[in-house]
Amino acid sequence: MNNEINRTEQLKDYLHRLNSGEEPESVRADFVRNFSEVEASEIMNAEQEMLKEGIPLSEVQKLCDIHSALFHGATKEERIANAEKAVEESIRKQTAEALKKHQAMMAANKTDYSRKNELAALLEAIPGHPLQTLTKENEALETLIGQINAAITDAKDITELLPRLRDLSVHYAKKGDLLYPLLKVKYDISGPSDVMWTVDDEIRDELSALLKDTDHNDKWYERFGAVLKRAKEMIFKEQNILFPICVVNFTEEEWAGIYRDAKDYGVCFGAEREVWESGEKSQTRNTIQTDNEIVMPGGHLTLPQLTALLNTIPMEITFVDAENINRYFNEGEKVFKRPGMAIDREVFSCHPPKIEPMVRSIISDFRNGKRDIVPVWMEKGGRVMLVKYMAVRDEKGNYLGTVELVQDMEFAREYFTKKG
């Protein structure tokens, strides 16, 4: 244990030195002298310790790319990926035995990080498993990045390749909705959500801005090369840090929930989803059924009637209770994805770090009676959307929670455009 603490402190020292402006090569030289290999989980622990010590998230996030390059090539994960590629390919073919072996290992020691790569390889071998799908997406993205870089080197036109990069936003949305919050809330592993999520947003935003810019001058290519490098580094972090951490902690039931929720997301980079038999057989969240009617001041409805009524309203409805817990989403196709696994989870965990302060402020104002409604107009996918946050209060004015209503207002723009 003492040795583990000392190694964590030493890693934190390297990161502190980088943060103070020391040249990365100088720090790397010391690192190589003192570490012949390093666990990805140790890097994660060092980051989390720095956050607990009060170092701003923005500072830790700035280090994300730097220390990725620093540790790149020195982690056990990367060595295993390179040295045992043939072994992993063999494991992928043994899909029938993979799930049984994984379940046995999880039952024996669920938090044994020393076996995380073996566990991850087993799940990647299972057809249709969420980890296999996410890995396929990363492999396809890495191939696409290679094609684009080769075209740039050969001075060829990359215009036709660029639109395919838009799928990156879907891949990142899956991580942000299905993986990060579960790690943070249930398993108290905040590093990926606090650091990786922010980097995801920056990569996606920069890529979006570049794809909208048609003036591909030298400055554009410089920025484009930089963001492709960050995207490729994120692939490495996902495969060797994020996914193995998820594998060690997530239960089969949670993976099944991720599998079901992932169906709401589009296909990424042509990596079609396969059917995961265990995920299909897994039971969905139970709903209490009763023949009794629900009696309210305005009338009375059966549970099926109330459910159908809420699903018929042309809005996306979310209710967060007074304890800031997601309690209800209506069903149906949605512009803003709401995974079923987010039910009974704190609402703040479902938002990226840069949005979370705004959500906290709105709910605080509702709770304290400073505001009752906050409308937000925006464009999403070229359509006008109205997102309305409203305080829910009882007849005495006591705060019961917050409702979020999302409405597509494109019909109004079309109506008034024609009328004008």
Short summary:
Helix content is 58%, strand content 11%. With 420 residues, the chain is α+β, with helices and mostly antiparallel strands. The longest helix has 32 residues, at 218-249.
List keywords for this structure.
58% helix, Four Helix Bundle (Hemerythrin (Met), subunit A), 420 residues, alpha+beta, 7 strands, Beta-Lactamase, 3 domains, two-stranded antiparallel ribbon
The backbone outline, from C-alpha atoms, is globular
**CATH 2nd-level architecture of the largest domain:** Up-down Bundle
Rg over CA atoms, rounded to whole Å, is: 24 Å
- Strand residues, percent: 5-15%
Instruction: Report the uncertain regions.
Output: 79-96
Number of strands: 7
How far apart are the first and last residues' alpha carbons, in Å? 73 Å
- The count of domains is 3
Mean pLDDT: 83
Largest sheet strand order: 4-3-7-6-5
CATH superfamily of the largest domain, by name, is nmb1532 protein domain like
CATH topological fold name of the largest domain = Four Helix Bundle (Hemerythrin (Met), subunit A)
Helix content: 55-70%
How is the main sheet built? 5 strands, antiparallel
What series of H and E elements makes up the topology? HHHHHHHHHHHHHHEEHEEHEEEH
Q: Structural class, from helix and strand content?
A: alpha+beta
Helix count equals 17
CATH class categorisation of the largest domain: Mainly Alpha
